[in-house]
Write a structure and sequence with these properties.
It is a single chain. The chain is of the alpha/beta class. The protein folds into three domains: 192 residues, 3-Layer(aba) Sandwich (Rossmann fold); 88 residues, N-(1-d-carboxylethyl)-l-norvaline Dehydrogenase, domain 2 (Orthogonal Bundle); 135 residues, Rossmann fold (3-Layer(aba) Sandwich), CATH 3.40.50. It is built from 19 helices and 14 strands. It has an eight-stranded mixed beta sheet, sandwiched between helices. Strand 7, helix 8 and strand 8 form a beta-alpha-beta unit. Helix 5 packs parallel to helix 6 and helix 9 crosses helix 11. The protein is elongated and about 75 Å long. It binds nicotinamide-adenine-dinucleotide and uridine-5'-diphosphate-glucose. InterPro entries: 6-PGluconate_DH-like_C_sf, NAD(P)-bd_dom_sf, UDP-Glc/GDP-Man, UDP-Glc/GDP-Man_DH_C, UDP-Glc/GDP-Man_DH_C_sf, UDP-Glc/GDP-Man_DH_dimer, UDP-Glc/GDP-Man_DH_N, UDPglc_DH_bac. Keywords: NAD, Oxidoreductase.
Length: 443
């Protein structure tokens, strides 16, 4: 099939590459000329394992190209995929201005029947508005479909080539038939439904996953006070098939480009129809506070943070990505600076992006994990990068001024800590001891 993908962020680029990988002709359009130039040279503007190789192979095979010319791309395609951003407005609502502009561009260029498939995460009712925006500018027939995207950053290629399910929301039988054929090579698990239900499936899925995370984070906070181990609790819960083991890792809360924005947007969607989504509001509130447990534990260990040097390992919102959108590290580092600490930070790949969000003379940017830890009064692990799990903890302790370790992601086990001098604070595991049999105080 001939496909145009509009927008080459995570979703547009990964979808474009993967649809070409399964044999379609794909043109990816972006209105950012620098991005298009970079992509044409075979370079990927985001860090995503496996993406560059797959993209170059498909460009070489002649199935994948990049352009700024939206009109020509639309003329040459049967399916048009909308994959532009829908960031939060200050009130939490989704900003639909990019989607509206693209709809109007489609309306003014469409020259024959097309299927318009929305992959951007958009509030319920938006695809009806897209239909109206396009219809107001053209007499040509087209069908709308909402096909939400469920990929995760860091595993985006695998998630797209081997999805758990594909949701196709449309009122058109013709579109259902074509889109089923398009997705068949990826999975048999294809759910067809109406447009509004498809739009809601996306928000409900993200809100549910965010709820699981805030739930286990609250359980971890209670575990710290009652002397239980949250990782054993999650394991014990997870064997129950009705609960499942995924998304029960306690930590410093969720970040990233989706959960924070989509939970806020769903609260707004509910509010717009006079529904007070109390549960989701609590999920968001719990998440906003969870990250500051790192600061509370530092204060417990160091008393005052003013004048202290704090090492930070991990700036990205999760490992295997250079994305720092809504990363908990942003507010944690900001709070450290506000309290008079200096920060030495290290991330394997996200430092450059992070510096665009937070920079200060009180932060120095280390080029290795050990360099960040040197002479520090305490170390905070904020992202569970594999390289942090593999460090020699005895060597690490020797590098630091004070062996205080705040593990925000529970990356170390008791076996690793028990022979070290570290005063070790993790999340919801208060029983862990160090070489002196010392347990961190309960907060
Ligand atoms: N990032 C994810 O992991 C993920 C996963 C699932 C769903 N989503 C949803 O998918 C959508 C896209 O997310 P993203 O992270 O890929 O977005 P992004 O903001 O990273 O990228 C959007 C791209 O669209 C381009 N663009 C904007 N207006 C354009 C126009 N008129 N013509 C051509 N190009 C245009 C921008 O230059 C940019 O390259 C959002 O709605 C998001 O919620 C994202
Ligand atoms: O048990 C867990 C699982 C995740 N997280 C955190 O949750 C956030 C999001 O993680 P993840 O879901 O793996 O990454 P995203 O790339 O943001 O993917 C989510 O958001 C995308 C955009 O909507 C969806 O497509 C995906 O299905 C959905 O998982 C990160 O900060 C993680 O550290 C936890 O704290 N504990």
């Amino acid at each position: 099939m001939n496909i145009t993908v509009i927008g080459t962020g995570y979703v547009g680029l990964v979808s474009g590459v993967c649809f070409s990988e399964i044999g379609n002709n794909v043109i990816c359009v972006d209105n950012n000329p620098e991005k298009v130039a970079l992509l044409r040279e075979g370079n990927v503007p985001i860090y995503e394992p496996g993406l560059k190789e797959l993209m170059n192979a498909n460009m070489k095979a002649g199935r994948l190209s990049f352009t700024e010319d939206i009109g020509e791309a639309i003329n040459r395609s049967d399916i048009i995929i909308i994959a532009v951003g829908t960031p939060s407005l200050p009130n939490g609502e989704a900003n639909l201005s990019y989607v509206e502009l693209v709809a109007k561009q489609i309306g003014s260029h469409i020259d024959s029947y097309k299927i318009i498939m929305t992959k951007s995460t958009v509030p319920v009712g938006t695809n009806d508005r897209i239909q109206e925006w396009i219809s107001s500018l053209t007499q040509h027939a087209f069908d709308m479909a909402s096909v939400p995207e469920f990929l995760r950053e860091g595993t985006a290629v695998k998630d797209t080539l081997y999805p758990d399910r594909i949701v196709i929301g449309t009122a058109s039988e013709r579109a259902v038939a074509t889109l089923k054929e398009l997705h068949q090579p990826l999975t048999d698990q294809i759910i067809t439904t109406d447009i509004r239900s498809a739009e809601m499936i996306k928000y409900a899925s993200n809100a549910f996953l965010a709820t699981k995370i805030s739930f286990i984070n609250e359980i971890s906070n209670i575990c710290e006070k009652v002397g239980a181990d949250v990782s054993r609790v999650a394991e014990g819960m997870g064997y129950d098939k009705r609960i499942g083991s995924s998304f029960l890792k306690a930590g410093i809360g969720y970040g990233g480009s989706c959960f924070p924005k989509d939970t806020q947007a769903l609260i707004q969607i509910a509010g717009n129809v006079d529904y007070d989504f109390k549960l989701l509001k609590s999920v968001v509130e719990v998440n906003k506070d969870q990250r500051f447990n790192v600061i509370r534990k530092l204060e417990e260990a160091l008393d005052v943070l003013d004048g202290k040097q704090i090492a930070v390992w991990g700036l990205a919102f999760k490992p295997d990505t250079d994305d720092v959108r809504d990363a908990p590290a942003i507010e944690i580092i900001q709070r450290l600076l506000d309290q008079g600490a200096t920060v030495k930070a290290y991330d394997p790949i996200a430092t450059e992006n992070f510096r665009k969000e937070v920079d200060s003379p009180a932060i120095s940017w280390a080029s290795s994990a050990m360099e960040a830890a040197r002479d520090a009064d305490a170390l905070c692990v904020l992202t569970e990068w594999k390289e942090f799990m593999e460090v020699d903890l005895a060597e690490l302790a020797a590098h630091m001024d004070q062996p205080i370790l705040i593990d925000g992601r529970n990356i170390y086990e008791e076996d690793q800590i028990k022979d070290t001098p570290f005063q070790y604070y993790s999340v919801g595991r208060p029983g862990l001891t160090n070489i002196d049999g010392r347990k961190p105080a309960v907060l």
